[in-house]
Amino acid sequence: MELQIQSSTTLNHDHDHPNSTPSKLPLSIFDLFALNFHTAYLLFFNPPTSPNTNIIQALSKTLTHFPTLSGHLDTTTNPSHPCILLSSDTSGVLLIQASTTSKLEDLSPFDPSPEFNILHPCLQNPHHLLQVQLTRFSCGGLALGVTVHHRVADGHSMSSFFTAWGDMLRSHFIKHLPLFDRSLFIPRRPPRCEYDHRGFEFLPVPPDHTGFPESPINVEQKKITNIKLHYSSEFITTKLKAPMREKHTSFEALLAHLWRKISVARRLETNQKTQVSISVNGRRRLRPPVTDEFFGNLVLAAYPSATVGEILEGGVEVAARLIRNAVKKIGDDYFRSVIDFRALHEEEELVPVFEALGNVLSPNLEADSWLGLGFERVNMGGAGGGLRACMPAWIPAEGIIIFVPTVSGDDGGVDVVVTLFEEHVRVLKEISHSLD
Question: Given 128, 236, 249, 335, which is the most exposed site by the fewest CB atoms within 10 A?
Answer without folding.
Answer: 249
